[in-house]
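can u pls check wat happens w/ magnesium ion
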Amino acid sequence: MPPAAIAVVRISGPRAGAALNALAGRLPEPRRASLASLTNGEGAPLDSALMLWFPGPATATGEDLAELHLHGGRAVVAAVAAALGAIPGLRPAGAGEFTRRAFLNGRIDLAEAEGLADLLAAETESQRVQALGHASGHVSRVIAGWQDRLLALMAGAEAELNFADEDDVEVGESVAQRLISGMAVLADELGEWLARPAAEVIAEGLSVVIAGPPNAGKSTLINALAQRELAIVSPVEGTTRDVIETPLALDGIAMRFSDTAGIRTEGAGEIEAIGIDRAKAAVEAADILLWLGPPKEAPEHPRAILIAAQADRWRGEAAAEAAAAHCDLTLSAATGEGMDRLHRSIVDMARTLLPREGEAALRERQRAALFEAKQWLEIDLASREAHDLILLAERLRLAATALDRITGRTGVEDMLDTLFGRFCIGK
Ligand SMILES: Nc1nc2c(ncn2[C@@H]2O[C@H](COP(=O)(O)OP(=O)(O)O)[C@@H](O)[C@H]2O)c(=O)[nH]1
Ligand SMILES: [Mg+2]
């Protein structure tokens, strides 16, 4: 948004060349930046700008495309926009319209468009790497490979159906067997992809919940992690009543840290009791739990880090030292002791929940389609279907249709608005 050093105005469509002619009086050489004095319809100067001309169809949108790199002042942009708006056939682009056109013109598929949306929204390094993989077609290529294999299986079934002698049951049987085992191999491969973590954990961040009894030092810990006074710290029990959440990236991994009300069974007032219920719900939903309290009282959780907090207070006391020995780590948020180790432990645990480096993760929408495809490919050998080539071929077709939904080759109209609405105007 202006003001900025440079503002890029993009014009796409059959009138893009006419727009450059109207403002600059000429079309520059394709794909070469050239300086132009832009004027409006009355010949009044607008700006001295860099212009670029990309004739279609080998462009980002698949249409003729022009770019004006203007001085980024508000009035400059407004004047150029007004001059463009006065040219018949030109109108301002809607949000995500350029990407939508790229998709409709077959320049990118849906998985790539989604990757592009994620790339624009990426705030951490892991989000960027993951989104870039999608945007540059990594997932699309894997899907294309699966589609090829489905097609080959389908072709086998079709050939048999078309040419086989109807009485020759035995040949049909062996073809069905081969088909079923081919489908099973593919189903296993889809299953491996489904076993990977979903892309949402990268995009939305892992949830790390700090819980424990009152006065354990939970609020002090979240403040130390966030390096600001997020939660009120006080020796009064029941100070924190609601769940306080803050986004925080550790080593490039997006996380959401939550401070919760101290969990106690007695003495809590009505509002604090609600807070305690919320704390328990947060613990259950947490990807990672930081438990500040007696290890024996820690809630059941698959990924809990048991912490002996406020070490500066009890250091040297035998009973406290013995209790701390049962924890995963000892720290003091007040002095900073042990905070590095906590950081490491959280990151190590988070990595177990994230896709490995270079491994693409799928969004829930894509996973649902993959799951459906996998189900169509799984044949119960005892069923009648297992002997019916027509039904097997139909299942292959349904599996291919489900995979098509990932790249958007079929049944996508309803999703387009949601997806392209995530883009801003001018992208
Ligand atoms: N000395 C010391 N005091 C702490 C530490 N962490 C918390 N406290 C104190 O313990 C009391 C309770 O802390 P608070 O963070 O509000 O605990 P919460 O109820 O678990 O959120 C406050 O008076 C804090 O100043 C620590 O690491 N060292
Ligand atoms: Mg608190």
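The chain has three domains: 6-104, 125-183+361-414, 202-353.
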